[in-house]
Write a structure and sequence with these properties.
The complex is a heterodimer of chains A (about 375) and B (about 500).
Chain A: E1 7-9, E2 15-17, H1 19-38, H2 45-70, H3 78-92, H4 103-129, H5 134-153, H6 164-167, H7 171-177, E3 181-182, E4 185-186, E5 197-198, E6 201-202, H8 203-221, H9 223-233, H10 235-240, H11 245-271, H12 282-292, H13 304-323, H14 331-375
Antiparallel strand pairs in A: 1-2, 3-4, 5-6
Chain B: E1 2-13, E2 16-27, E3 31-35, H1 42-49, E4 57-62, E5 65-67, H2 72-77, E6 80-83, H3 95-99, E7 106-107, E8 110-111, H4 113-126, H5 142-155, E9 160-164, H6 172-187, E10 191-195, H7 199-205, E11 208-213, E12 216-222, H8 228-236, E13 254-263, E14 267-275, E15 279-283, H9 290-295, E16 305-310, E17 313-317, E18 322-323, H10 328-333, E19 336-339, H11 343-347, H12 354-359, H13 363-366, E20 367-368, E21 371-372, H14 374-388, H15 404-416, E22 422-426, H16 434-449, E23 453-457, H17 461-467, E24 470-475, E25 478-484, H18 490-497
Parallel strand pairs in B: 3-10, 3-11, 6-9, 9-10, 15-23, 15-24, 19-22, 22-23
Antiparallel strand pairs in B: 1-2, 1-4, 4-5, 7-8, 11-12, 13-14, 13-16, 16-17, 17-18, 20-21, 24-25
Helix pairs in contact in B: 8-18
Classes of the chains: A mainly alpha (about 375), B alpha/beta (about 500).
């Protein structure tokens, strides 16, 4: 986290700044302030907390995706992973009825997390051992996981039109669960979640922050994280430095699976129902958050906290569109535009950083030349 | 009467002068050789003439007129075509299509395949090579591809043909064919500029030879008025060593024993010993596969046969199928360290911090319960900063904002952090300034004195002469010389490196 200090002292005491790394933070603040003054809907705190809640699911999925993009790959299967988690979660929850209240939820969560890790492991093994490009592997596995989700759900018919005997696995079951409370705080499962708050913030906010901090520590302070960064910079250099590259690739996908499982649990409890139809395309929203957050598209550098900020930024835009009365049907245009912007800003940014590094190098060369001239 | 004149050419790359006021001239219909050591500037001159680079200063005159050559098309328009050292081709297209890609014959809007194939076949037959014009490029051997590359240049039918190391990938028969081609061009009144490391070829087919050294022009001689020894002396010169260190300490027992190491197509029958505290140089010209030999000691290349013994234990044996150093990871575990020659692509992790770059190879030793202890990490950095005089602004600075010399120190420190007892360094001073160069070699000497066995591969002979106890010389994948410190002489190394039989094998084989 020390690393995200953007102010660095240069050798001769001046201060410089990798602007590109933190542009998103500035963008979000400016955007929020602008909205606060221009739109009455945004002058209330509750609207911002709604944005945070909406963003948190994408943000948590984005933590996992940040690992993938940093290592130089995408995982296109996360929307389907979320769908499968969601369906399995609602299928097993009503069947686990332990004596202690709430243990069922905990056990179900554990199952989902193990499942997420397993899905990541499968993706990773395919990429690392069969040497199929990650893009293709996860595109294929995306279909497999979604197919499985439909299979578990036992019917491709939308949840809302299912008969009561199915609903007992899904929506109704969740409504039972929601009554479980701890010390006056309603747990975050079920439809009733919307009202769950701690110190004024939705509970999802704290989960998001906690997971982002864990993710950051893994990325920067563990061997696993450093190895993922390293293979994103150069696989060849990583290999020469003694890093087990295939193993690191597998772990990367496991990280994606792990955080995606959390996102799946959150989404399920947010909707209060299983949702095998989590829209495909969600993975691209998540990827655009990662890229907008400054993670290099080619891998090698990135920040999990910035991904979270970027997810908030994207959620703000969609809320703002609604706030300004823009037709829901054309939101896709804006989402597409964000994606283009996210990917192009990275190019602009790397130009800027390159120019900066070149400038420093030139200055060093000149300094050396002056020094040698002076000694002569 | 000079036909081509290059006047006062200066070319700088990232502040380093590749060509310093070079003036060269060639006569019409002569075969003119340009020679020099690695990095002397031969290829740079030719790339300027061929339109790939643009000189910072200086003029080009052809036939008495000044020419402005700023791209390949302009070079062709001025009658210059180039056979490049690196092969550039479309593997899925036919030989004929590759040759005429620049100017496909067209009939009624469609490619006239018949004419194209006919012309290409005629061109290839004229070159006296046995290649069918309709064969897909990918089915050809590397040497055949090289011949097609030559045909491509000839298809332009220009007055000046530049050949940059055309024989690097050719076998004996094809070299003969090339001699024929060059003679044919000369007979037609064309000018050939011929660059080669193989001095024998230059004496075989060239009329005059110009020598470059460290980006400077050293002179031109008629081939009849100079012999190979004199030419080599012109190439290497006599300079006072710019490096103060000398490997004068005694070295100890054998650490690494390599016997008959062979890899099909790269190197064969390589045997040598490396001792505790010794600095062993490996010299050879570009493309002699010396890097591949040491890569097989670090699991980057898997040899076909031979044996490697490390500290008394057989770690590789082709006959017994043992390979305990099959990956860099395993090699590190056995106490072998490796510093790459390609710092930018396979050395640094450009976007990671300086400190992260240092500690990446030993993460598991720095971690407690999986978390890296920031204090141990910083202590390690402080330790190496003091030992190696590394300069950086903060430990959190991205490594690509450091100077080349400091990047190199970080990579060296990373390798040393694994406690290696055998250290392989490839081009340890490439692309770094003079001050840092001598610092690096001083470090290597200190390491050697502390008992590390070091292999240094360098294209700069001076470095090897000043810093190594012994030097192996490689020519076309074979060991052609093993020279002790007392016998070091640039000319001797160069004679071995250019495959001069008179000098090869003159040294004792030293395998005992």
């Amino acid at each position: 986290m020390k690393r995200s200090n953007s102010l660095r002292k240069s050798r001769n005491g001046g201060i410089y700044f990798y602007f590109g790394d933190h542009a998103i933070v500035i963008a979000l603040v400016v955007f929020w302030v602008a909205l606060f003054f221009t739109n009455s809907a945004f002058s209330s705190f509750s609207n911002y907390s709604a944005i945070i809640k909406e963003a948190s699911i994408f943000a948590v999925a984005g933590i996992g995706m940040t690992f993938a993009v940093i290592s130089g790959v995408f995982d296109l299967s996360i929307a389907s992973q979320i769908a499968l988690s969601s369906v399995v979660f609602t299928a097993i929850l009503p069947r686990i009825t332990p004596e202690i209240p709430g243990l069922g939820i905990v056990l179900s969560c554990v199952v989902i997390i193990i499942m997420g890790v397993a899905m990541g492991l499968i993706n990773g093994l395919l990429v690392a051992n069969l040497r199929i490009p990650a893009f293709i592997t996860t595109l294929a596995m995306q279909m497999v996981y979604r197919g499985l989700a439909q299979f578990v759900n036992n019917s491709p018919v939308p949840i809302s039109s299912l008969g009561n005997e199915y609903r007992s696995f899904t929506a109704t079951a969740m409504e039972d669960v929601v009554r479980w409370q701890v010390g006056g705080v309603e747990l975050f499962f079920g439809r009733g979640f919307g009202g769950t708050r701690l110190f004024g913030f939705p509970l999802f906010f704290y989960i998001m922050i906690a997971l982002a901090l864990i993710g950051t520590v893994i990325l920067r302070k563990t061997g696993i994280g450093r190895n993922i960064l390293a293979i994103g910079n150069s696989r060849e250099a990583a290999h020469i430095a003694g890093i087990n590259v295939p193993r690191t690739q597998i772990i990367t996908f496991v990280m994606v699976g792990l955080f995606t499982a959390f996102a799946g649990i959150m989404m399920t409890s947010h909707h209060g129902s299983s949702n095998y139809g989590v829209p495909s395309g969600t993975e691209f929203t998540v990827i655009s958050a990662v890229v907008l957050g400054g993670t290099a598209l080619a891998g090698g550098k990135g920040s999990i906290l910035n991904t979270v900020i970027a997810a908030l930024f994207i959620a703000t835009i969609s809320t703002a569109l609604t706030g300004f009365g823009i037709d829901n049907n054309i939101h896709g245009i804006f989402n597409g535009a964000i994606l283009v912007f996210a990917f192009s800003i990275n190019t602009i940014r790397s130009y800027a950083d390159d120019a900066f590094v070149k400038f420093l190098a030139n200055r060093d060369i000149k300094a050396i030349a002056n020094k040698t001239a002076a000694t002569k | 009467m000079e036909y081509i004149e290059l006047r006062n050419i200066v070319k700088t790359f990232y502040g380093v002068k590749a060509l310093d006021d070079v003036s060269l001239s060639m006569k019409k219909s002569e075969v003119h050789a340009v020679v020099g050591e690695n990095g002397a500037g031969k290829s740079t001159v030719m790339k300027i003439l061929g339109g790939l680079y643009f000189a910072d200063r200086g003029d080009i005159y052809i036939d008495g007129k000044p020419r402005h050559i700023n791209n390949v098309q302009a070079a062709l328009k001025n009658g210059i075509s180039v056979v490049h050292q690196e092969l550039h081709y479309m593997p899925e297209l036919s030989v004929a299509e590759n040759i005429y890609l620049h100017d496909l014959p067209v009939k009624a809007g469609f490619i006239d395949k018949k004419t194209m194939n006919k012309n290409a076949q005629a061109l290839l037959d004229g070159m006296n090579v046995d290649i069918k014009a309709t064969t897909p490029m990918s089915l050809l051997s590397v040497s055949e591809q090289q011949m097609v590359e030559i045909a491509k240049a000839l298809s332009h039918d220009t007055d000046i043909v530049i050949m940059d190391e055309p024989t690097a990938a050719l076998n004996v028969k094809e070299v003969d064919a090339l001699y024929g081609i060059v003679a044919g061009l000369k007979a037609k009144g064309k000018t050939v500029i011929y660059i080669s490391h193989r001095l024998k070829e230059i004496f075989d087919i060239c009329d005059r030879v110009s020598v470059l050294r460290d980006g400077k022009y050293m002179g031109t001689r008629n081939i009849g008025e100079i012999n190979q020894d004199q030419l080599v002396e012109m190439m290497v010169g006599r300079e006072i060593s710019q490096y103060s260190t000398t490997a004068d300490h005694e070295y100890g027992e054998t650490v690494l024993k390599v016997r008959n190491l062979t890899k099909e197509g790269l190197f064969s029958d390589i045997s040598f010993d490396l001792h505790k505290g010794e600095v062993l140089g490996i010299a050879g010209l570009m493309g002699c596969f010396r890097e591949d030999i040491v890569k097989s000691l670090y699991g980057l290349i898997h040899p076909d046969s031979g044996e490697i013994e490390l500290e008394g234990q057989t770690v590789y044996s082709g006959s017994e199928g043992v390979n305990l150093i099959s990956t860099p990871r395993k090699a590190i575990g056995r106490g072998i360290g490796y510093v790459t020659e390609d710092r930018k692509n396979s050395g640094i992790f450009a976007l990671m911090t300086a400190r992260e770059n240092l500690t990446i190879s030993i993460m598991k030793f720095l971690a407690k319960f999986g978390l890296v202890r920031a204090r141990s990490e910083q202590e390690l950095l402080d330790d190496y900063t003091a030992k190696m005089n590394m300069k950086y602004r903060t430990p959190h600075q991205r490594i690509n904002s450091l100077s080349g010399g400091n990047q190199q120190k970080f990579i060296l420190a990373r390798t040393l952090s694994t406690n290696c007892r055998v250290l392989i360094t490839l081009e340890p001073t490439r692309g770094i300034d003079v001050g840092a160069k001598s610092e690096i070699f001083a470090l290597l000497e200190d390491l050697a004195k502390s008992g590390v066995a070091i292999i240094v591969i360098s294209s700069e002979l001076q470095e090897i002469i000043s810093n190594c106890h012994r030097t192996l010389v490689i020519f076309q994948g074979a060991l052609t010389g093993e020279i002790n410190k007392e016998d070091f002489e640039e000319t001797l190394i160069m004679q071995c490196a250019t495959g001069n039989e008179v000098f090869m094998g003159k040294e004792a084989d030293g395998n005992g």
